[in-house]
């Protein structure tokens, strides 16, 4: 179930006729809510994955109206992409670029390069992503499951 988007929000964003065109696989003349729900979930998942440093979902009560509206705007862009992705002939460069820009902005917020208006959740060392361990030479001499070393030669011309 979507945390940010609703059918009413998407109708206001791109219009009911467009939603019908993008979701009505059975030619019923109405919005296929199952398809729309799936695209809303996918769009939200894209943004939530980029905002892993924050306490999700972002809500008005926990995080304020500005943060919520920002995430809502990004989710609308990614949902729109997933809707149009179902109809590749209708996909425009503008839709694709808007999707890529939304993900890039969410990533910048996650890294603290752009503000979301709320602080990230402090993580313990056990929760933090693990960095690669070992020196470059140790990592470059990784072995394959059959205990042979990975080399450029064994991988072909790289």
Give a verbal description of the structure.
This protein is mostly helical and 158 residues long. The chain has a domain at 7-110. 52% of the residues lie in helices and 0% in strands. The relative contact order is 0.12. Mean pLDDT is 83; it is low at 129-158.
* Percent of sequence in beta strands: under 5%
First CA to last CA: what distance?
A: 44 Å
What is the total tally of β strands?
Answer: 0
Order of helices and strands: HHHHHHH
Helix content: 40-55%
Number of helices: 7
Shape: elongated
How large, in whole angstroms, is the Cα Rg?
Answer: 21 Å
Topology of this protein?
Elements: H1 7-14, H2 16-23, H3 33-50, H4 60-63, H5 65-85, H6 93-110, H7 136-140
Helix pairs in contact: 1-2, 3-5, 5-6
Which features characterize this protein?
158 residues, mainly alpha, disordered C terminus
Q: Could you provide a short overview of the structure?
A:
Helices cover 52% and strands 0% of the residues. It is an all-alpha fold and 158 residues long.
């Amino acid at each position: 179930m979507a945390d940010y988007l609703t059918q009413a929000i998407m109708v206001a964003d791109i219009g009911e006729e467009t939603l019908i065109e993008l979701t009505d696989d059975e030619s019923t003349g109405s919005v296929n809510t199952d398809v729309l729900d799936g695209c809303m979930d996918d769009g939200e998942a894209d943004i939530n994955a980029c905002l892993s440093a924050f306490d999700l979902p972002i809500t008005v009560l926990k995080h304020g109206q500005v943060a919520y509206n920002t995430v809502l705007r990004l989710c609308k862009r990614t949902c729109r992409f997933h809707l149009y992705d179902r109809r590749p002939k209708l996909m425009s460069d503008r839709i694709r670029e808007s999707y890529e820009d939304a993900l890039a902005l969410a990533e910048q917020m996650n890294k603290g390069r752009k503000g979301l208006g709320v602080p990230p959740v402090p993580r313990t060392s056990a929760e933090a992503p693990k960095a690669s361990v070992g020196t470059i030479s140790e990592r470059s001499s990784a072995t394959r499951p059959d205990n042979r070393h990975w080399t450029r030669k064994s991988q072909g011309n790289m």
